[in-house]
Design goal:
By secondary structure, the protein is of the alpha+beta class. It has helices spanning 11-21, 35-38, 60-70, 82-102, 104-107, 118-142, 156-166, 179-189, 192-200, and strands spanning 2-5, 26-29, 48-50, 56-58. Strands 2-1-3-4 form a 4-stranded mixed sheet. The radius of gyration is 17 Å and the shape is globular.
Length: 204
C-alpha cells in the first residue's frame, strides 16, 4: 500500500495503522491543495491510499477501517461482534464528524467567515475554542477509568483521537485540563507504531 500524507494531519493515524498491520507500505509526502496532488485527490486533502489496483481511496476513517479489516490479525479493529463494530463506527464518526470540523475555524477561518478583519477572525476562533472544549470534554469523560476508547486494547479509534489531540496545541485549550484525555494521549504517544510514524513524518 502507498499512503499520501502531509505531516501531522489525519494521515498520521493511517500511517500508524499501516505500521500496526505489519506489512510493507510506502509513504509519499505531498503539498496540500497543490495542482500536482489534486491529480491524485481533486479535493487536495490527505490522506489518500492506493492498494494495488484499488485506485485512490480517500477519507481517514474509511481507510482506517479498510486497513483494520484487511489485517484482522493485527487486532486494531476493536472488540469482535456487531456491538464492537458499532462502537468503533460510533467513535470514528464522533471524531470525524464532531471533533475534526470544530478545528476548521482554527486552521482555515476563511471557510467559516468571509470577513478578514481580526475582530471577526477572533470571534469565529473563540466560538471554535468553546466548541472544542465541549467536544474534548465528552471524550475526556468517556475515558474516565478506561485505557482505551473502545474495548480493552488499542484500536484505530485511539490513534485517530491521538492525532486530533495533538492539534490541541494550536488552540487556546490546555491538555492538562482534560486529565483522562491527557493520560490516553501519553499512553498512545508511547506506542512503538506511533513513534515510528512520527519519526518517518519528521514530527519527532
Amino acid at each position: 500500500m502507498k499512503l499520501y500524507y502531509a505531516p501531522g494531519t489525519c494521515a498520521l493515524a493511517v500511517h500508524v495503522a499501516l505500521i500496526w498491520a505489519g506489512d510493507d507500505y510506502q509513504v509519499e509526502q505531498v503539498v496540500l491543495g497543490s495542482d500536482a496532488y489534486k491529480k491524485i485527490n481533486p479535493m487536495g486533502a490527505v490522506p489518500a491510499l492506493v492498494d494495488g489496483d484499488s485506485g485512490v481511496m480517500l477519507q481517514a476513517d474509511s481507510l482506517l477501517k479498510y486497513i483494520s479489516n484487511k489485517y484482522p490479525d493485527a487486532a486494531m479493529g476493536g472488540p469482535e461482534g456487531l456491538l464492537g463494530e458499532q462502537q468503533i463506527d460510533q467513535w470514528l464518526a464522533f471524531l470525524g464528524g464532531d471533533l475534526h470540523p470544530a478545528f476548521w475555524p482554527i486552521f482555515r477561518p476563511a471557510r467559516i467567515t468571509t470577513r478578514e478583519d481580526q475582530e471577526s477572525i477572533d470571534a469565529v476562533q473563540t466560538a471554535a475554542n468553546n466548541r472544542l472544549h465541549s467536544v474534548f470534554g465528552i471524550l475526556d469523560q468517556h475515558l474516565a477509568g478506561r485505557d482505551y476508547i473502545v474495548g480493552e486494547q488499542r484500536s484505530i479509534v485511539d490513534v485517530y483521537a491521538y492525532v486530533m489531540t495533538r492539534w490541541m496545541a494550536r488552540t487556546r485549550l490546555i491538555l492538562a485540563d482534560f486529565p483522562d484525555l491527557l493520560r490516553h494521549f501519553e499512553r498512545t504517544g508511547n506506542d512503538a507504531g506511533v513513534i515510528q510514524a512520527e519519526n518517518e513524518q519528521g514530527l519527532r
